[in-house]
Write a structure and sequence with these properties.
single chain; alpha+beta; Protein Transport Mog1p, Chain A; 3 domains; 7-stranded antiparallel sheet; 41% helix
Length: 252
């Protein structure tokens, strides 16, 4: 894949507009192209920042009409040019965003459905990458679950289930406090063949789910599920088979 096509593919990938084959091709490209990976990370960070701002912008009706009129005029004056409805809507939305960012930005989405997590993919990746910086991985470092679990007492409104799966090849490294989607969460840290796995845990009132299908972005895999009043999201650069194995162990 040529990086000359990166802007178009990158935004299509970010907005989930690529078909499965094209998305897979782009993900393979990301694994070997630092430039594209950095560009995608910047776009995701911008989107995440806007979503976390807690502000809202309703464009005035007059502004929407003005934008629509301008698009219609541009279409009419361009000989042989046809702009599809979806593209007109996309252009209008982009203009509204640019106009509004100077004083407002998107609100955070409301309550998520039972099949989605209450935090964005960008937030999960950012938290994982941030934890890999020196001195950020754990607040309590221990391979003993009876040391890690009590450490969370009084620091969160809940105590996460903590288990060591060293016999299965997943060594407990420790735990820390983190924030996802504006909520305080527990981060359990495991090691798998020198690769770090973060498992974010927070309470939920939603019903249990199966372990969802894997996600992949910027070289990181993640798995999400709900079990016995807790929401889990495991993320790492290990293979999905390894991540799924840990998810199954924690699901039991």
């Amino acid at each position: 894949m040529s990086c000359d096509f990166t802007p178009t593919l990158l935004h299509g990938y970010l907005d989930d507009e690529l078909d499965a084959a094209r998305a897979a091709e782009f993900e393979r490209h990301l694994e070997c192209c630092k430039e594209c990976t950095a560009a995608l990370g910047a776009e995701e960070s911008l989107r995440s920042s806007l979503q976390r701002s807690g502000l809202y912008e309703n464009a005035p009706v007059a502004l929407r009409k003005k934008i629509r009129a301008g698009l219609d005029a541009a279409t009419a004056s361009s000989a042989g040019m046809r702009i599809s409805t979806w593209r007109m809507i996309a252009v209008a939305a982009t203009v509204l965003i640019v106009a509004g960012v100077s004083w407002f930005s998107w609100p955070r989405a409301g309550k998520d459905s039972a099949s989605t997590a209450p935090f964005t993919v960008a937030e999960i990746i950012d938290a994982h990458v941030r934890s890999l910086q020196p001195g950020h991985l754990t607040d309590v470092t221990s391979t003993d679950q009876h040391t890690v679990k009590p450490w969370f007492n009084g620091k969160l409104a809940f105590v996460p289930p903590v288990k060591d799966f060293a016999d299965e090849g997943f060594i407990l490294v420790g735990g820390r406090l983190d924030v996802l989607g504006g909520q305080n969460v527990a981060a359990l840290v495991y090691s798998r063949r020198k690769h770090i796995i973060n498992v974010f845990v927070l309470p939920t009132k939603e019903p249990d789910t199966a372990i969802h299908l894997p996600g992949l972005r910027q070289g990181y895999q993640w798995r999400h599920w709900r079990r016995q009043g807790m929401e889990y999201c495991a993320i790492s650069d290990v293979s999905d088979s390894d991540l799924y194995e840990l998810a199954q162990l924690m699901y039991q």
